[in-house]
Amino acid sequence: MQFYQKREQKNVAYWNFFLSLCVLIMAALGAATRLTGSGLSMVEWNPFIGAIPPLNENSWFDLFQKYKETAEFIKVNTYFSLQDFKSIFWLEYLHRLWGRLIGLFFLLPFFYFLWKKKLSKKESIILFLLFSLGLFQGAVGWFMVKSGLTDQPWVSPFLLAFHLTLAAFLILAFFVTGLHFLHLIPLPKIWKNIYPYSLLKTSLCFLFITFFFGALVAGNKAGLIYNTFPKMDNTWIPDDLWKQTVWWENFFYNPSMIQFMHRLLAIFTILFAFWTSLLAWKIDKLTMVWCGCLLLQSFFGILTLLFHVPIFLATLHQAWAFTSLLFGVFLYYRWHR
Length: 337
Known about the structure:
The chain is an all-alpha fold. It folds into two domains: 1-183, no CATH class; 187-337, no CATH class. The protein has helices at residues 2-35, 57-68, 71-75, 82-115, 121-147, 157-182, 195-219, 250-253, 255-280, 286-306, 311-336. Helix 7 (195-219) runs antiparallel to helix 11. The protein starts with a helix and ends with a helix.
């Protein structure tokens, strides 16, 4: 009986890890959707009927006519034919369909584990709140798309950053829940009282802020300017960092400042993480592996910048950012436990 209970606990853990992976794939699909200009191809949000793709030419024609009324078609894609529209439609459709499938991947095992009484009341509430947060994430995604269906042919950078940051939170939340059920063997408890533990928390905070500015880079298309490294064109500090009249608006509306902050935060985060690793590697060598993840992430970012944001590299850069966050949170859980 005890073996059966342990096995069931592992099944719950693996289910949460799977959900974390599913949301990560969803985020990668979202990046590809944004980079290919597919995100505004579906101008309606039908949570249930929307799962059915166009089945005949009349359906395709109706959808294309609705797309023709958007600012993106009028100002950017006026040359689009029906075939061009189909080429951008399918990626956005796949992105939304995958979100619906994640809902099923959650609900079916959730009710099964409830039926088998493998979840405590507290665990059930937490998981249901995560599901509710997933629904809210879908609503945020729609409001983001809707913001690009007005007079401007692009979505709100703030909603995009919020949408992406919320995805990161869901990925991390399901991952940590999986670790909870897996009961991984922690390091000695004394780690809670030594210096590197607080440094790791600080490193994760810097990493998350860097991630947020990366989302602002994506939302403001700031990666399409200053495509050089380490300098920004021929200077270390561009002249247009403070072009906004209100100083704080530069950090949210000025693409030059946003890219500059993302670079600066990335460098500082890596240096801080290495400092933490040097203090901790004798007891937990996984800290150096995490630093390797961060270095690889910065390498992907530099390549993305130098090659003017190609779709594959930009998607890889975003997906690996989630991986680096997951690894850091795993270390935090391992030390905290």
